Structure formats: C-alpha cells, structure tokens
Automatic annotation (TrEMBL), chain A:
The chain crosses the membrane at residues 21-43, 49-72, 84-104. GO terms for molecular function: cytochrome bo3 ubiquinol oxidase activity; proton transmembrane transporter activity. Keywords: Cell membrane, Membrane, Transmembrane, Transmembrane helix. One of its GO terms (cellular component) is plasma membrane. It comes from Brevibacillus fulvus. Pfam families: COX4_pro. The keyword Cell membrane applies. This is Cytochrome c oxidase subunit 4. PANTHER family: CYTOCHROME BO(3) UBIQUINOL OXIDASE SUBUNIT 4 (PTHR36835:SF1). It comes from the Bacteria.
Automatic annotation (TrEMBL), chain B:
InterPro entries: Cyt_c_oxase-like_su1_dom, Cyt_c_oxase-like_su1_sf, Cyt_C_Oxase_1, Cyt_c_Oxase_su1_BS, Cyt_c_oxidase_su1_bac. It is a multi-pass membrane protein. Belongs to the heme-copper respiratory oxidase family. It is an enzyme of class 7 (translocase). This is Cytochrome c oxidase subunit 1. Cytochrome c oxidase is the component of the respiratory chain that catalyzes the reduction of oxygen to water. Subunits 1-3 form the functional core of the enzyme complex. CO I is the catalytic subunit of the enzyme. Electrons originating in cytochrome c are transferred via the copper A center of subunit 2 and heme A of subunit 1 to the bimetallic center formed by heme A3 and copper B. One of its GO terms (molecular function) is heme binding. Its main location: membrane. Keywords: Cell membrane, Copper, Electron transport, Heme, Iron, Membrane, Metal-binding, Respiratory chain, Translocase, Transmembrane, Transmembrane helix, Transport.
From TrEMBL, chain C:
Binds a copper A center. This is Cytochrome c oxidase subunit 2. Subunits I and II form the functional core of the enzyme complex. Electrons originating in cytochrome c are transferred via heme a and Cu(A) to the binuclear center formed by heme a3 and Cu(B). GO terms for molecular function: copper ion binding; cytochrome-c oxidase activity; heme binding; oxidoreductase activity. It comes from Brevibacillus fulvus. Its EC number is 7.1.1.9. It is an enzyme of class 7 (translocase). The keyword tRNA-binding does not apply.
TrEMBL record, chain D:
This is Cytochrome c oxidase subunit 3. Signal peptide: none annotated. The keyword Cell membrane applies. The lineage of its organism: Bacteria, Bacillati, Bacillota, Bacilli, Bacillales. One of its GO terms (molecular function) is cytochrome-c oxidase activity. It comes from Brevibacillus fulvus.
Length: 105, 613, 338, 209
C-alpha cells in the first residue's frame, strides 16, 4: 500500500520524544491553573466585574490552545490539514457567535 | 491471510446492496439522484402548470405549497447533490491514480443514508402530507402550531440524508489528501478533483450547522422545546441564521463541482491545457472561503440593520471576483484552441454565458437596498435557476456526456445528445428569463396563483411553455441512456483524446482501477505521456497482488435502522425509534469489532483480463 | 456548424425582443420598475446602476465568447496541436482588478442608500403606522390618530410614513413594490421602515414571505390621498357611525352583533382577531382579493374557505336570507368617499 | 500490504500511523472534529442568544453552583490527562499500562455523567425544564449534547477495551485507541467552553444585573 503514499506525506515521524510525558504534565498543570483562575475570578470577584467575562473567555481560549497543540499533537509535523480543519472551524464559529451576539434581529 | 477468495466476480442485487466499490457506488448515486431529479422535475412541471394562467385551479393552495417545498428540497438534497457525488465517486479516485477512496465502507454508508433519508422524505406524500413550509422551512411557519406532520418528515429525512453527505465529504477530503499516486502533487490535481476537494471541505463545515438546526427544530416540534417560539422567549431569526450558515455554502457546494467539470471539458475539447491553472485553484479556494462569510445576504429584509446588511452585501459582491477569474480563464482556454462541439462541450459552452447571467443577477441581489425589492420575488427564482439549472445542471449533463464511457463503457449518442442540448437550452431560457421581469413587476415567489389584470399573465405563460422544452430535453437524455445501454459497441479507453489520468485505463474502469499505480510526471498526467510519445502511464510499482476491501451489508442495514427510527420519531412511537437506533449501533459495533481483511486480486487474474501494464 | 450559430443568434434576438416587450410594461401601481416614491426611486436607481454595469460586463464576455467560438472552432482536416498556454499574468491581473473596481463603484451608493433607508422618523414630519400581519390579512393602526383599519392602508401623499412592522402569528413580509422594497414582519419583535408616495392613487401591496396556504392571496391596497383629504378621512374614521336604513340592514346589524362582533370590530367595539370592518364598504376588495360587490361578499360569507384556503374565518353556515341581511348591513359601513 | 496487519511482533514507534488505513483514520477523525467544532459552535451561539430568555423561570444565576461545576470540571480534566497517559503507554507498546489508564478514563467519564444526571434532575425539580423556556431548551440541548458525547465516548471505550483484550496492540487497533483519545480530548475541550460560557458567565451575569 505504500505506493499510495504521496510524496508530501512520506516523512518518518521522529522517535517519541522523551520530553513527551513532561510536556503533557505541564499542560495538565496549566489547565488546572487556568481553570482555577477562572473559578476564582468569578467566585471571589478578584478582578473588576466588567472584565470578568472577557477574562475567563481568554483563559478558556488559552487552555484550549494548550490542549489542542500539546495533548492532541497539533504542533507536530504531518498535522497541516488537521490544523487547517480546526482553524476553519474556529473561523466559522467565530463568525456565527459574533452574528448571534450582535445581529440576531 | 486465508488466501484470496475469488469473490470479485459478483453480480445481481446482493452485489449492489453490499458493494463498497467507489465506481459502483457512483452508479448507485447516479441512479438514485436521477430518479429524484425526475420526481423533482415532475413537481416543477405541476408548479408551472398551475401558474400557466392566472387564477388557475389545477392544484390547491395547500398542495402547491407542498409541491414547491418538495421540489426545492428534492432537487437540492436528493437530485443534484447525489449526481455530483456520482461523478465524484466515479472520477476522483481515477483522476488521482488511487485504487479506491480512503474509506470504502463509509462511502457505501454515505450512499445508503442519503438514499433512505430521501425515501423517508418522499413517503410523506402518502403518510399524512408533504412538508409545506418551503425548502427553507422558516420558523414560525415550520412550527407545530402552523404546519402539519410533513415538516417532521423534512426534519428527519434531511437529517439522515445529511449525515450521509457529511461522511461522504470527509471521505473525499481524506482520499484526496492521502491517496494520491506518486508525483500527483496538489498543484497537479485535475481541476475537477480540486473542486471536489474544496466542495468536500465546504460540506464538512456547512453540514454540521444544518444538523444542529434540524436537531433544534426536531426538539421544538417533538419534545416541546422553545428555541423559536416567541411566546416562550424563543427567537424566530435563529433558524434563519442557522439555515443560511449552511445554506449559502451549500450553493457553492453545488456549483464548484460544475466549475470543475467545465474546466475539464473545455480544456479537453479545445485541445489546450487549462489557462491560468493556478489562478483557477486560487479562485476555487477563495470562493469556498468567502462562501462562509456571506450567508446573511438571504436575510436583508429580516431587519438586521444597515451595518450587517452592507457588510454581508459587500462580502457577497466580492465573490464576483474569483468567479470572474474562472469565466475569463475558460474563455482564454478556448482562445487559440481547436474547439470540438461534442455534446459535452456544447453543455460546457452553453454554461458560460448562462451562468454569467445568473451570477450577475446574484451580484445585483447582493446590494441590500435593491434586494428589498428583489427579495422573495420571482427575480430571485430566476437568479437561482440560472445558476443552478443553467449552471449546475448544464455542468452535470456535460460531465455525464463526458464521463459516461468511463462509467459504463458505452458512448452516449452524439446526435441525440445535440437534440438534448438544444431543447433543454432553449426551454431553459424560455422558462426562466421572463421570471426576472415577473419579479420586478411585483410577483412574489411561492404564490399558488396570481390575480388577473396585473400584467403578469404573458410572462407566466411563456415560462410554463418553456418547461416543456426542458422536459423534452430530459426525456431525450433518458432515451440516449437506453440507446447507449443497448448498443454493443464498447467505448475505447480514451475516446476524447483527453488529458487526465482516468483516460489512461480501460472503459469502464476495472475493479482495481490501476493494475499498477501510475507515476505522475506533470499536470494533465496522461497528456504529458502522450506528448512524450509514450503509449500510457509509467507504472510506479511492479505488478503485484492487489488488496481490495470486502463488500458489506452493514451500511445498508445501518441505514435501515435509522430509517425505522425516523418513522418512530415522526409518529412518536418511540419503541421504533429505540429499535432503529439500536440496529444502527449494533451495526457500528459489529463493524468495529470485526476486522475487515479484504481479499486480493492476483497478477495472473489481472493479466487474464488482458490489461497488461 | 453554420445552422447552430444561426439558431443561437435567432435565439438571442428573440430574447432581446422579449426583454424589451416585457420590460416596457408592468402595472404602474404594482411594478418596481415604475417607482412612485422616493424610496422606490432610490432603490430603482441602484437597480439601474447595477444592471448597467452587469450588461456592460456581459457584453464583454459575450464578445470574447462569440469571437472565440467562431474563430477557434476546429476546422475539418485541421490537426496538429495548439500551443499549450500556461496563463498570462497581465491578463489575469486585468480581470481581477477591473471587476474589483466595478464592485467599488456599486458599493458606494449601496452603503449610502442602505443607511438612508434605515433612518427612523419618529419626529412630527412622519406619520407612524403600526402594521400587524395576520394569516392572511393586514391590520393597520395609527397610534397618533387613535384609529385603526384593515386591508386598505390610507396614507397622505408627500409625507414620510414610518412603519412599525410586526406579526401576530407567523412571519410575513410587507411589500408595496411601487413605493419601495419589503420588510419582514417577525413575531416577537418589530421592524422599522419608511415609505412615501408622491402621487395620490391606489397602490398594490403584497405579502412576500411564505406564510401558509393563502400566502398568495394576502394582498392589500394602499390608498394615497392628498394630505387634506387624508385628514378628512382620519376625522371621519374617528367618528364613524353606521346608520342602517333598511329593515334588512337592521336585521343584518343584529346578526352581526350576535355572531361576528367577537372577532371583528366596528369602530372601537368588537374583537381584534379579525379585520376591523368600520369602513368595509369603502374597501377595494373583500378579504383583499375579491372585488367588493354584494355578490362577492355573499360568496365570502357563504364559504370563506373556498375563497381563501386556510384562512381563519370559520364557515358560519349562515342561511341565505341572513347573508342577504348581512350584505345589506355591511354595505352601509361607509366612512369616507373622496 | 494490509496482510501484514497481523504481524505485531515489530510494532513501530507510532503504530497508529504505521499503515495507510491508520493514517486515513487519524486524518479523517481530525477533519470530523473540525465539523464537530461547527456543531458545538452553533449550539453555543444559540445558547448565548437565548440565555436570558427564561420566560419567568429560574435564571442561570439562580440555578448554577460553583462547587458542582468545579467538581465536574476537575473530573473531566483529569480524565483527559489519563487518556493522554494511555496514548503515551501505547507509544511505549505497554498494553497493560494503556488498559489501566483507559479504565481510569472510563470510570471518570461515568462519574462525570452521574454528576450531570444528578445536576439535571435537581434543575428539573426547580422548574428548569427543556420545555419551560428558550433558556431551558438551549441549556439542555448544549449541555446535553456534550453529555451525549461523554456517554458515547464511554460506550466506545468499552468496545475498545474488549478489543484490547482480544486483539492486543496491533497496527489495526492502535489507530482506534489513538483516535479515541483525540475524541476524548475534544470532549474535554468543549467542556472548557461550557463551564466558561454556560456556568461562569451566568454566575457573573447575575451579579452585574
Ligand atoms: C449554484 C447555486 C448558486 C450560485 C453559484 C449562486 C451565486 C451567487 N448568488 Fe445566489 N442563490 C442561490 C443559488 C446560487 N447563487 C439560491 C438557491 C438562492 C435562493 C435561495 C432561496 O431563497 O430559496 C440564491 C439567492 C441569492 C441571494 C438572496 C436573494 C434574496 O433572497 O433576496 C443573493 C443575494 O445576495 C445571492 C447572491 C449571489 C451571488 C453574488 C453569487 C455569486 O457567486 C455569483 C458570482 C458570478 C458572477 C458575478 C458572474 C461571473 C463574473 C464575471 C464575469 C466577472 C465580472 C463581474 C462583475 C464585476 C459583477 N443569491
Ligand atoms: C437543483 C435545484 C433545482 C432544479 C434543477 C430546479 C429545476 C426547475 N425548477 Fe425549481 N426550485 C428550486 C431548485 C431547483 N429547481 C428551489 C430550491 C426552489 C425554491 C423552493 C421554495 O421556494 O421553497 C425552486 C422553485 C421553483 C419555482 C418557484 C416556485 C414558487 O416560488 O412558487 C419554479 C417555478 O417556475 C420552479 C421551476 C423549475 C423548473 C421548471 C425546473 C426544470 O429545470 C425542471 C426540469 C426537469 C424536468 C422537467 C423533469 C422531466 C420530467 C419527466 C421526464 C417526467 C417525470 C417522469 C416520472 C417521474 C416517471 N422551481
Ligand atoms: Cu403573509 Cu405571505
Ligand atoms: Cu446565498
């Protein structure tokens, strides 16, 4: 079947990095911290209420990026199309949400 | 492996129900899509018959609304999409030098889901009334308070068919990305494959939106949810947005493959390479991307406000630029060529001015203030039939005449073909050209009749007469199919002196497509070899045993399961809903647990058939 | 080959003629091509501008197209291989930039007109009309004047009318082609739009959004009156009082009060589920579609569903003599004759 | 050729990408997740649009409680981590370890579901139902769709465990485990936005007034 493999995608993925486990653990800690920050921001009103919503949304986006790129390996080579796929999805969702917030009527 | 079961010499009904061969699935799509096209066409004829004179009393008001809804829904989802899938299935793997698609099983599943979804929808005629809220099913009219059980058929039928389309789209994306023959880089992909690729991408990103829309509507109609009902805080405009977030990309899902066909046909029959190939690729991708940013141009009169309207309007107008690039590239492909007017090329050539007219009225519609006048009038009906019938359907006819020999091994008759073209072409313009003026003169769309003395009589009369021309054209095509099927003459491998890979193998394509995977050495792979004086493609691998996926009955069974569940939901007999869903899950489980080892075709069998490398 | 081109030309000619023929006409009080007020005028100017540009582009396309098809068709005996051209950057840039510029030409007036049309007139210059669409009839209220009517909309000429559009059931769209484009009436929200008529006259209005079986029959009329006459009408409406003269008409009034007033109002009295009939006898049409005469009214009362399928007026199984009485009574519901 | 599928003595480093079928599966699944992004995005947009339409019923601010949401969040986050560990174990060709991590993932998934069922029944008792308001409809559909994904994931995981026992780690089964972990991460990722947009924003929103 190897004959079908196109020349662009015939690359040998490197040996599993030793640091793999570490990066994943770091991401886990980052996720926990970001989540905790969001809950604290809401629960204890540590930042001005007016900023809370943009702040927690930003936290969510950062966390999502971490998980996508580290846990789901979007950063690795050979993930060009998955990256395009997710990016396009995000763009369409952004347009949708924006419209639903501002232009529903 | 337990040897190679010689099971590839199958035939008969069982074979068709279990096949996972992309070429056979292509034929299934063509038959089913063609059948639904006749039904949708019949509905169109009834519509035109009712409108031939003012205050006619041929079908009632309620029936008329069912007819337009089913006409639009059937044509878009069950007729032209499947025929597009037919061509994509039949041709894309061949054009990229692949033995099959990435997921043959999923491919079959996609077909059967579409098919049973379509059947479910159409049985509504006999089971309590067809949907009658328009193909757009705008809430509130589509809510339970205002319309009958038909809309439930719409919701579930489209949900099931839509799932089939979605997985089909993913399948083609992966196929094009991963299954290309050596040397077939992205910038060497034939234009039809490029357009199939982008169309599949649009399917992937557009269909989930309609899936959600249909789920919301289903919950609202069947389980008492309140997304749209303003009395409980719902919002009627949400449906409009969701429908068009899907609906606008959908129209480019339809037209891009037609663009692809035209590119292939025009280039082949001008005996020239496609002018501006890379800008064509760029334009296709651009259209696909912009297609997601313009949906609200269907909602200018909803009351979104001037900022939204002008932003969406201007974004819409921008699509004229990449589309124009295509039109001019086609013209300049023909420039300096040796144009042969085969039927396939007649349809392609007829496409160019006709689609241009449709695209231009599209740009006129994109100016919000002007659209306040055009919207929901016959001007819009004229616009979209110009792009859909004069664009897409012409493109599909062109593609069918072009690839028929590759799909069936027989040539369609050219003489009949020319009659087919001219009757359809003239009938088309007679039907839809006057509708522009009807709309401007104040005729709203979706009206089952119109009163006398409004100066609308003549236009409607001509329009209805024109539909006869398209009917004759369609019947001539059917006749042509019969004549071709009966003819004994086998089509040659490369009847048109064409340029791309699919013409390097016999007609019809053998089960394994390529005895040896070809090595691609440039754009228009076959043409490159022809110019180099070679007889055929250079193989990229030695002749060896070919692995094939096994046929499976599970896709059919699984679709039956959802079909049953659909009825369970519609008639609120949830025992059936549960049974149906369990059947589907059981099939999934079986598929997951049991590995498919496939079977092999050995070199001696290949050579037996005389297909030497 | 020849005959095919002849055929094509014949066809183009035919369409040209057809276009001229059809474009010329259209009823003045219905067609969007014969604008009767500033809004329709602005929209028409935009339509003309864009159509002109489109025709220009189309001519270019068709010229190249015809030239190519005639010049480069394969001639008998011709062989050899044409030059395989990869593309031409100059040309490609040309047909990217020119359309882009044309779009800008259209975009500028598009933006200004869209904003002009969306201005809200809540000042004294404008007359506010609240429009409520129903399956399948129209209700018009004049909050400033304290009157309301149905089916026939009365407006003064030369004055901005500020519409406040909503719906009582499903979505409809309010469209008076000769005066200007349409706007949806959404249940649960209201949309704003303004129109203006220059000349007195009767304009045709339509429902433009599929709203059920009788969507096609949801017509209405706009009666544009000179401002002075409009004021007279408004005053008359406020003090409307019908005086059934004949015995039959009085009998009709009694029937009406018994079986119709629950849904229909006359003056301030009665239900709001159905068209206000205060000035019914002044209407152009019965139920928006039948010419308003005694036979048609009788036809309507005998079987509303036969006239307008799916409408919400039940068949009250009235005896012919009761219908006669009602018709007599209702023909007295006159308020104003200009 | 695919006949070598059964050869699992020499498993490559990343067995999920060793065959064309495996590559196809991973890529196809990624694209599917692109589609799922739109699916959930549309549901989010609908929820955002309707979240204040309570039709007289209880508001999100009145209903939602931080501790419950936090518990659910931690459970799902940890389960996402454990599914990462299962893939790492797979890359080390350690079948046993992988199975253990997968089992923990499944248990956490079930715990999450139990919490959600408790939560929903609690709300229904307070009059917050699918049919009570647009807010209710949007809430149950969005959160329920996510819950449905968790449920499906758990069921799927069970069939995978069966295969792990029966077939072990091969180039045929490896892509399945890998793809499952992608799915599970995605479900967790959606939850990140659910707790932010649905729960936290409602709780804040109530305070602002
Ligand atoms: C195959 C299907 C298809 C295609 C390709 C298109 C293409 C386009 N459509 Fe169309 N459209 C539909 C199918 C399609 N449409 C359908 C089905 C509906 C109605 C749905 C319903 O309500 O039921 C609809 C409705 C519709 C509307 C809403 C109308 C209304 O309801 O009020 C609008 C408004 O902007 C619009 C615009 C456009 C535009 C700008 C394009 C552009 O893509 C066209 C671009 C092409 C050209 C412009 C021609 C070639 C270009 C040149 C030669 C270059 C030079 C040109 C210029 C400078 C202008 N369409
Ligand atoms: C792919 C899409 C597609 C196609 C191909 C067509 C094709 C045609 N359409 Fe279509 N049409 C739509 C999509 C399409 N339409 C949509 C989306 C709507 C909007 C619906 C809505 O408002 O909700 C619409 C609405 C629409 C209307 C407006 C209805 C209204 O607003 O009131 C009209 C009216 O003329 C019309 C006419 C036609 C005609 C004459 C054809 C012809 O081209 C058809 C030609 C084909 C034939 C004539 C078939 C030949 C038949 C036979 C050979 C006999 C069959 C025999 C057996 C079954 C045994 N269509
Ligand atoms: Cu009201 Cu159409
Ligand atoms: Cu569109």
């Amino acid at each position: 079947m190897s004959a079908h493999v196109s020349n662009e995608s015939t690359h040998r993925t490197p040996k599993v990095k030793k640091s793999g486990a570490k990066a994943h653990l770091v991401t886990f800690i980052v996720s926990i911290v970001l989540t905790a920050l969001a809950f604290i921001a809401v629960g204890y009103e540590v930042i001005p209420i007016g900023f809370t919503v943009p702040f927690i949304i930003l936290l969510a986006i950062v966390q999502a990026a971490f998980q996508l790129f580290v846990w789901m390996h979007l950063d690795q080579k050979g993930h060009e199309f998955p990256r395009i796929g997710i990016l396009m999805g995000v763009v369409v969702v952004a347009a949708t949400v924006f419209t639903f917030v501002y232009w529903l009527w | 492996m337990s040897g190679h079961a010689h099971s590839h010499k199958r035939s008969g009904l069982w074979d068709w129900l279990t096949t996972v061969d992309h070429k056979k699935i292509g034929i299934l799509y063509l038959i089913a899509g063609g059948f639904f096209f006749l039904i949708g066409g019949l509905e169109a004829l009834l519509i035109r018959l009712q409108l031939i004179v003012p205050e006619a009393d041929f079908v009632g008001a309620a029936t008329f609304n069912e007819l337009i809804t089913m006409h639009g829904t059937t044509m878009i989802f069950l007729a032209v999409m499947p025929v597009i899938f037919a061509l994509m299935n039949a041709i894309v793997p061949l054009q990229i030098g692949a033995r099959d698609v990435a997921f043959p099983f999923v491919n079959a599943l996609g077909f059967w889901l579409f098919f049973f979804g379509g059947v479910l929808l159409n049985t509504s005629w006999f089971l309590g009334g067809a949907p009658d809220a328009g193909w757009t099913s705008y809430t509130t009219l589509a809510l339970k308070q205002y319309s009958g059980i038909g809309v439930d058929f719409y919701v579930l039928g489209l949900q099931i068919a839509g799932l089939g389309t979605l997985i089909g789209g993913i399948n083609f994306l992966v196929t094009v990305i991963n299954m290309r023959a050596p040397g077939m880089t992205f910038m060497r992909l034939p234009m039809f494959t490029w357009s199939a690729f982008v169309t599949s991408g649009l399917i992937l990103f557009a269909f989930p939106a309609i899936t959600v829309g249909l789920v919301l509507l289903m919950f609202e109609r069947l389980f008492g949810a309140n997304f749209f009902n303003p009395d409980a805080g719902g919002n009627v405009v949400i449906w409009e947005h969701i429908f068009w977030i899907f609906g606008h990309p959908e129209v480019y899902i339809l037209i891009l493959p037609a663009f692809g066909v035209i590119s292939e046909v025009v280039s082949t029959f001008s005996k020239k390479r496609l002018f501006g190939y890379s800008s064509m690729v760029f334009a296709t991708v651009m259209i696909g991307f912009l297609g997601f940013m313009v949906w609200a141009h269907h909602m200018f009169t909803t009351g979104l406000g001037p900022i939204a309207n002008t932003l969406f309007g201007i974004a819409t107008m921008l699509i004229a630029v990449p589309t124009g690039i295509k039109i001019f590239n086609w013209l300049f492909t023909m420039w300096g060529g040796q144009i042969r007017f085969t039927t396939a090329n007649l349809f392609a050539v007829g496409f160019i001015p006709t689609f241009t007219i449709g695209g231009m009225t599209g740009v006129m519609l994109a100016l919000p203030a002007a659209d306040y006048q055009y919207h929901d009038s016959y001007f819009v009906v004229a616009h979209f039939h110009y792009v859909i019938v004069g664009g897409l359907v012409f493109g599909l006819f062109s593609g069918l005449y072009y690839w028929w020999p590759k799909m069936f091994g027989k040539m369609l008759n050219e003489k009949l073909g020319k009659w087919n073209f001219w009757t359809f072409f003239i009938g088309f313009h007679l039907t839809f050209f006057p509708q522009h003026f009807l709309g401007l003169m104040g005729m709203p769309r979706r009206v089952f009749t119109y009163l006398k003395n409004q100066d609308l009589d003549l236009g409607n009369f001509i329009s209805s007469i024109g539909a006869i021309g398209m009917t004759i054209g369609t019947i001539l095509f059917l006749a042509n199919v019969v004549v071709a099927a009966r003819s004994k003459k086998q089509a040659p491998a490369d009847p048109w002196d064409a340029r791309t890979l699919e013409w390097a193998i016999p007609s019809p394509a053998p089960e394994y497509n390529f005895a040896q995977t070809p090595l691609v050495r440039g754009l228009d792979a076959l043409w490159v070899e022809k110019m180099a004086g070679n007889k055929g493609m250079t193989p990229a691998e030695p002749l060896g045993s070919i692995h094939m996926p096994s046929p499976s009955f599970l896709p059919f069974l699984m679709s039956i399961g959802l079909f049953i569940a659909g009825y369970g939901f519609i008639f609120e007999h949830h025992v059936f809903s549960v049974i149906g869903i369990l059947i589907a899950f059981a099939c999934m489980l079986m598929r997951s647990l049991k590995d498919d080892h496939g079977y092999h075709i050995e070199p001696d069998e290949i050579e037996e058939k005389g297909v030497k490398a | 080959m020849k005959s095919r081109w002849q055929q094509l030309w014949r066809q183009l000619f035919l369409f040209g003629m057809l276009a001229l023929f059809l474009a010329g006409c259209g009823r003045e009080n219905l067609s969007a091509l014969t604008p009767q007020g500033p809004v329709a005028e602005m929209q028409f100017s935009l339509m003309k501008l864009s159509a002109l540009i489109m025709i220009g582009v189309f001519v270019v396309v068709i010229l190249i197209f015809t030239y190519v098809l005639i010049r480069y068709r394969k001639r008998p005996g011709q062989d050899g291989i044409p030059k395989q051209v990869e593309g031409n950057h100059k040309l490609e840039i040309l047909w990217t930039v020119i359309p882009f510029l044309l779009l800008i030409v259209m975009a500028v007036p598009t933006v200004t007109i869209a904003f002009d049309l969306s201005k809200e007139y809540t000042n004294k210059d404008a007359l506010v009309v609240k429009v409520t669409a129903h399956q399948f009839w129209w209700e018009f209220e004049y909050p400033d004047l304290g009157i309301s009517t149905a089916q026939d909309l009365y407006i003064p000429t030369g004055k901005k009318i500020q519409f406040d559009l909503t719906s009582a059931d499903v979505m409809h769209a309010f469209w008076i082609p000769a005066l200007g484009g349409k706007m949806d009436t959404n249940p649960g929200d209201s949309n704003k739009m303004w129109l203006q008529a220059e000349k007195p006259g009767i304009y045709y209005g339509k429902c433009a959004e599929l709203c059920g079986a009788s969507h096609a029959l949801m017509d209405f009329k706009v009666n544009a009156l000179e401002p002075a006459k409009f004021d007279e009408w408004a005053t008359a409406m406020k003090s409307a009082e019908s005086t059934p003269a004949t015995a039959s008409a009085q009998q009709g009034q009694q029937i009406f009060q018994k079986s119709c007033l629950g849904c229909h109002a006359i003056g301030a009295e009665g239900g709001k589920l159905a068209p206000n009939l205060t000035n019914f006898a002044d209407r152009q049409r019965v139920a928006g579609i039948l010419e308003n005469n005694p036979e048609n009214l009788d036809k309507w009362l005998a079987d509303p569903q036969a006239v307008k399928p799916g409408n919400l007026m039940p068949n009250l199984n009235l005896k012919p003599e009761d219908r006669k009485a009602l018709v007599d009574y209702m023909s007295t519901l006159k308020v104003y004759q200009p | 050729m695919s006949a070598d599928h059964t050869v699992n003595s020499v498993l490559p480093d990343e067995p999920e990408k060793a065959t064309l079928e495996g590559k196809n599966k991973v890529l196809g699944f990624w694209l599917f997740l692109g589609g799922e992004t739109i699916l959930f995005g549309t549901l989010f947009a609908t929820f955002i649009a309707l979240r204040n339409q309570t039709n007289g019923g209880p508001t999100g601010h009145e209903l939602f409680e931080l501790p419950l949401t936090a518990a659910a969040t931690v459970i799902l986050l940890v389960s996402s981590m454990t599914s990462v560990m299962s893939v790492l174990a797979m890359h080390q060709h350690n079948l046993k370890k992988m199975q253990v991590w997968l089992t923990i993932t499944a248990i956490l998934g079930i715990a999450f579901l139990a919490l959600e069922i408790y939560e929903f029944s609690h709300y229904v008792a307070e009059g917050h139902k699918m049919s009570s308001s647009a807010f209710g409809s949007a809430f149950y559909t969005l959160v329920g769709f996510h819950g449905g994904h968790v449920l499906f994931g758990v069921l799927w995981l069970i069939t995978l465990q069966l295969q792990a026992i029966k077939k072990g780690l091969t180039v045929v089964t490896a892509p399945k485990f890998y793809v499952f972990s992608l799915y599970w991460h995605f479900v967790d990722l959606v939850w990140v936005f659910i707790f932010t947009v649905v729960y936290l924003m409602s709780i804040v929103g109530g305070k602002v007034g």
